[in-house]
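Changelog note: in this version the structure field was regenerated for every chain. One regenerated record is shown below for reference.
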Amino acid sequence: MENINYLDQEYMEKLLTNFSKATGLFIEAVDIYGKTFLTPKDVSMCEFCSYIRSNEEGVKKCEKSYQKACKEAFRWKTTYFFRCHAGLVMWSVPIIADNENIGCIICGQVLLWEADEFFLEELKESNQDLFDFDIICEKVKQLDVISAEKCQSAAEMLLLVVNYIVRTNNNIFLEQRNRQYWRNQIIKEIEERKKGNIDKIFDYDTYFKREKKLLQYVRVGNKEKIINFLPIIFTDIDVLSEYNTQKIKLRATELVVNMSRAIVEGGLDSKLSIDKAEHFYKKVEGCKTSEDVFSYLNKFILELVDDIFILTQNKQVSLLKEARAFISNNYDQNITIEDVAESVCLSSSYLSHLFREKLNCTVNNYITRVRIEKSIELMSMRELSVQEISEKVGFNSQSYFTKIFKKYIGVTPITYRNKFK
């Protein structure tokens, strides 16, 4: 299984070997299908299990038992105790990295009590015609019998060991998975181009046009389009660099320089942008493969986009606050959307977009709502007529004020004043 390669197997083997020697229990690592991929050095499984596995069908039964145990361990995300097809007590501890099920550590091959006639009868029935039953009976006598307490303690200790392995391997797992992801993405993109005869003439001019488009997405913090566009850009860099890692590093560095400038234009602090770029340069120097370069480049770009997104969100909140304040201070005047937009130095179309996205209404609707709310406050002032109130809140005619008031409140201004004020 591919994910197994992400583990530091040499380190893991040392831990399993020492655990097995310290406890006297056999231990092995299996993948999600129950197939063994790692066993401790200088430690042998019990003679009973060795005999069971001497038959191909016996091996298949063991793997089936382990696969089932793995599923349960993944399901509960903790140690799972079970009896294998041959009746031995075992437990499985899940190996999970970044929510990816990698495999399990299987331990045990013991009995909690001496084998009796019922155990032997069950064993004979489940392994009928596969083995010499007399030999099996002799092997059973050599099995370790341990207490339930010792069994539980060993299982808990193993869980701690596995959790430690996962923590120390998690970063390795993520980095290697990212490398493989980008290699697959680029291969896929190249194949798609071949199939569709895309880019019959492909050169730096084509790349620079695409880079320009990417920088536009960066300036406005459009994360979705950036994510969709990166495989194309990375493939361009790979192809133009003739798949040479050193050339890819150079192209990636050039892209980071351009992106740093673009993100400053988008509003990010220039020092922060430079610091992030310098961190990338140091990282990319140590990259040995193109996959490493693309993995770090992807991380760098998405971190920059997140910074712009946060900045954009903060800016939008601030601009909306200013726009609403302008409306609250000028609702009694004949203000338009252009007046509000000018007060916060935005285009009227972008201001309209902000109001629809953040407040779920148009600018004009918001102005009208403020005017109606203010008119309700004035209703308690009996010395003011409805005509005067409509003028004070910015309506040019009483009839229009009455129409809008009824639309928002459900009754006319006079009815509202008589019944509620």
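Spot check on this record: The CA atoms of residues 409 and 416 lie 9 Å apart. The longest strand covers residues 100-110.
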